[in-house]
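Ticket reopened. Same input as before:
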Amino acid sequence: MNKPEKLPQRVRIEADGTVTIAVGKVELGQGISTALAQIAAEELGVDLSKIRVLPASTAYSPDEGVTSGSLSIQDGGKALRAACAELKGRAEKPASEYRIVGTNAPRLDLPGKFAGRASYVQDMVLPGMLHARVIRPPKPFGKLLSIPEHPGLVREGSFAAVLAEREEDAIEAARKLRAKAAWSDGPAAPQDIYAWLKAHVAESKVQKESADAAAKARGVKHFKAEYRKPFICHASIGPSCALARMKGDTLEVWSHTQGIYNLRKEIALVLRMPEEKVIVQHAEGAGCYGHNGADDVALDAALIARMSRGRPVRLQWTRDDEFAWEPYGPAMVMALEASLDSQGNIVSWRHDLWSNGHTHRPGRANQPVLVAAAEIARPFERGPAVDPPLPAGGAQRNAVQGYEFPDHKVTFHYVRDAPVHGSSLRSLGAFGNVFAIESFMDELSDGDPLGFRLKHLKDPRGRAVLEEAVRKAGPFKKAEGRGRGIAYARYKNVGAYCAVVAEVEAGGAELKVTRLVAAVDVGLPVNPDGVVNQIEGGCVQATSWTLKEQWKPGTVSWEEYPILRFSEAPAVDVVVLKNSFPSLGAGECTMGPTVAAIANALHDALGVRVRKLPLTPENIANA
Amino acid sequence: MKFTVNGKPVEVEAGENTPLLYVLRNDLGLVGTRFGCGSGQCGACFVMVDGRPMASCDLPVSFAMNKSVTTVEGLSGKVQKALLAEQAAQCGYCMSGIIISAEFLLQKNPHPSESEVRSALDKNLCRCGSHNRVVRAVMRASREQA
Ligand code: FES
Ligand code: FES
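Engineering reply: fixed in the latest deploy. New output:
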């Protein structure tokens, strides 16, 4: 863990001809380090093997905010390209001269991972390190009333943890202490979260309004439907982990956070330390798919390091901790209304949506948000989850869709109180909104889902992915219990275009997704196979969310929270449209179209419209 | 406590109920075996004990006494090579356990069908959705082995 000296710039050419690049975007298993190395190698005219990407650190990396929203290639790539060109003292290369960007460079990190070498923050060892586990109540937000004495127990207010030389001893001690400690009851999660959301609106904000009374008056057929999306867990395979060490008055933290500077700010705030005395260094974790427990466990480790008499600590959350305390993707209700004229054109459209904010990230405000901030001796009141404004949006992401209707109004009913802790999950509100919009489009389409969409969609790049997905899917043999559905969205309305065709079998009680075809337009792909990999992964993960996933109070293990297994994963065909528009992120664009395409295919198979996720036998039977 | 890891004899001092996982990672420095759940539900910690895949997270180290343990670090590499050829991972955290399950399958059944590969891997969870690439890699490893 030698600290590299402070880098005055993003790119440095070393004496041995290798090139060191410091980027603010972090590797989350999405292959971003490799794609950024390709960009640097391209602009500098050196071999890809000569590029070394430093792990991001507040000690020397540029502050590029949070690695989220599929923006790393758009923003991080652009800044890096400019820095390389500046170093070479010439203009950036035109796309027509690229020979490394646009190729399938193999991922730089995979050989080590497949060989089982130390690759993750979980694998780090610091000299003299102690193992820690936190001791939290089974239900969120109770106060610690009593806990027995135990060697290695550290406590500050309601925050308690136990330290041991050996990891298994820390685990065992935490288990015993958790069983013997007493907590006050936290607030109970509401029985019917959807009714609860609608009854607790803090503020209703109109997101889009184009009123056209004349068009609306042409409506002859009227439709109305309500859709629901539950809390969904990030459920990383590797529970969150962090290391921390106090050295004199400086605190060092190693974390798989998505935003090293924001985390530093939050830790300094909660520990009441000056920011310059906190160093946060990124170290990879398992895939996170948004804002999971990474930041919470890092604050926990920082608090423990202050109580460990100078010994470095390694804290890993247990699987139960992760399921009980990670910030889930928030539940949502979407109510849609539309009117069609006598030719079957949509003349009026209403989209109302109820949700908590989808961003509860640290370091954004002067009020902390992480779990332990409310547990320490002088606790903070945790700030509410908020939403970035459109076009990106949070809850309202993709609520304003890309179709063109004359009379069109979208309203977001923001719920500030949050009985269940939520934050950003891959694609944020787009998963719920696109599920609702693209299901509703199907309900209105009168048996011609493709033609109906094309009739209302002008954007040629959107039309192209829809047509390509259907072409690639080929002919379909309709049979008893088999169905096909399509869906489309342009992610965030300014990001990647994606259309998905889903094929399902709904023979018995279980719904099986047999095949997905995704056509995407991500502009110029920096690493085409990397894009395909993310699209395939997004399709499979979205299938898992769609068929199985909903967090419920008391979820502690994979038994209560099953995810898609190998035998259940659908075949996925991906087409990446070729063009040289500016590169767009690929990580999240499939989520919304996949869920809606599956719901539409289910309707095609059984004639049942299921408007409540997940599409479990129970929800299908009750539809 | 004495046993063999990746062909080498080892001796460790640990309580006999210590899960094998922590002995491998913390006493022997073999961090390729990952922690995922601690209760046998996810497969991230799979190793072979006398040639059979087992969850090391809830296996007492005493069980391995006088037995032979193989971790991802000790494998021949044919599955790993095929995974690289297919670029079959995103975060890669689940892969050590998957490699163990796939090696075992190919030893038992050198030419599995696709659905046999899928059922052989059903005990391994992958959250990134790398399933289809992994299946292609295992089929490739099966074709390419002598
Ligand atoms: S960590 Fe052992 S099966 Fe999950
Ligand atoms: S590749 Fe990330 S969990 Fe499998």
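Chain A has three domains: 11-105, 122-185+235-325, 332-358+393-622. Chain A is about 25% helix and 20% strand. Please confirm and we'll close it.
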